[in-house]
Write a structure and sequence with these properties.
- The chain is an all-alpha fold and 121 residues long.
- The chain has a domain of 59 residues: Helix Hairpins, CATH 1.10.287.110.
- Helices cover 52% and strands 0% of the residues.
- The chain contains six helices and no strands.
Length: 121
Amino acid sequence: MPLTSSKPGQDPYAVLQIDRRADENAIKRAYFRLVRQYPPEQAPEKFQEVRVAYDLLRVAESRAMVDLFLLQPPPSLPNRRRPTYDLSVHTADLGALALELGLARYAPANDFRVPPLPAKE
């Protein structure tokens, strides 16, 4: 059985009707009081809520996780606009790019030859 609440965002302390600083004995007393009040034969949905809340709070490690992660409100997301990019290509840009890529393959030393100069006498 997963130890997650059937209703997202439900506070297990509020389900058990106890304070957040309650110790293990107070959690156990609240659980048994609510089980007597909502037996599984008469109110199975409420019993299941109480059982899940008790399972979350009875173990110290899971109670620490509840206190850290489940009860804090989620951080607000910034209201930022997404940047827009101009991805259109113009024909003049394509021609210039093709010329640059075509010339980049050839090294200038291979394209131009310096003729030897005549010797001075």
